[in-house]
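Researcher: Let's continue the batch. This sequence belongs to FAD-binding PCMH-type domain-containing protein, and it's 472 residues. Same format as the previous ones, please.
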Amino acid sequence: MELDRRTVLRLAGAVPMMAAVPAAIPEGGGPWERLRARLAGELFRPGDPGYDEKRLGFFSLYDHRLPAGVAVCANEDDVRRCVDFAARQRIPIAARSGGHSYAGYSIVDEGLVVDLSRLNAVRILSGGRAEIGAGAQLGRVYEALAAAGRALPAGSCPQVGIAGLTLGGGIGVLARKYGLTCDNVESVRFVGADGKACLVSEETAPDLLWALRGGGGGNFGIVTSFTFRTAAARTLTNFNLVFPPAALAALVAAWQEWQPAMPDELWSGMGLGAAAANCGGCFVGSAAQVNPLLDDLVRRVGVQPLQRDVTEQGHLATMRTFAQEAAFPAAVAQRGEYVATSRMLTHPVPDPDALAGLLASDPHLYSIVDAYGGAIARVPSSESCFPHRSALGSVQITRGLDGGEAYARQVIGGVRDELGREYGQAGYINYIDPEMPEWAKAYYGESLPRLRRVARKYDPDGLFAFEQGLAR
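Model: Same format as before. Here are the structure tokens for FAD-binding PCMH-type domain-containing protein:
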């Protein structure tokens, strides 16, 4: 049996097992109290007021995990102190931005959670750039950029943190026009395993910058802020077409021919399930411009939508409309009560009826297809490690917990593996699945060998190691 770093430390007694009772403060204050005294922010330990709230992430599945401490950092120096502390105490450490890891990896059991939520400033710089703290959530980012007449291609859920999204690539509503979120990263502020802070740029550490553009959150070190190139705000039109559920196969067949033929200004995705056959998205331009394009999709489907919403906005900050559907779990729950996995659509669907049957095979399944192409496909591999540039799109497969977690994972795993037989084993790291077969190859593809070399270089002792991490 292969033992990861955390298992070795636990067996060696370096990581004490946590009980579900308040931990006693070591005599004389101890290392945790010395860390507390050094932080400008706050440290929450078991038994402290607020600990049970601060330790939680987005997904309730991981509420049983008990970090030894949660440090809510006030600045980059706090992050440095936390990294230094974890290295000296030989305990696991993980950064948390939005806390939306599908596998709960930002809630490190028996270790130190570095909470970046206070590092959330959005500062507009010269030349159309923006410096954004790693703890900023997308809703705040969009609002601040829009107020300055700027925009950034990013995701659709306002509570998601900018760091996790960016480090895993960043599929978003403007990606066909402006690229992935990671494609717009100019530089980052970074705290490495040595506890030192530095600027990572093409000039200072091109290999690390390459890896941070899509290499996944939790690897290499902790990013404290990003400097992004942004786009000038332009008119945006949101649209949402709701078809009868029986039109699912016809929608898939039509969409996969229609979307690649559309201009880069049009991005769309589908929400598919036993009771859902929806297509929503954004168009960089006016309603008058996009309506004929939507008419073309409806003609290809051959079924009139039950609902058609087209809303013209004044700026690019608006998120996609179909993410607000009641059927989309993350939009209706304050916390997540579902499991998820993914596959890449590496080529057009040969049998839309078979796909429709698979995605509607369980009443609690809901799958989201996001379009690729456009600017996503034009970034060379030398600039970013994101390996799925040529895909038609990605499929995120979600299911609620009816029947329990194990059964829910069995259902989505069956869909994942069936899709894998047709489209290959690739998946999207930001939809990380703890049961993904051959996960490293699935998420990183041909970038994997180089990514592992970068991880060994910047984290040689595996301080940031986790179950599906590159430093294992």
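Researcher: Any comment?
Model: The first helix runs from residue 5 to 11.
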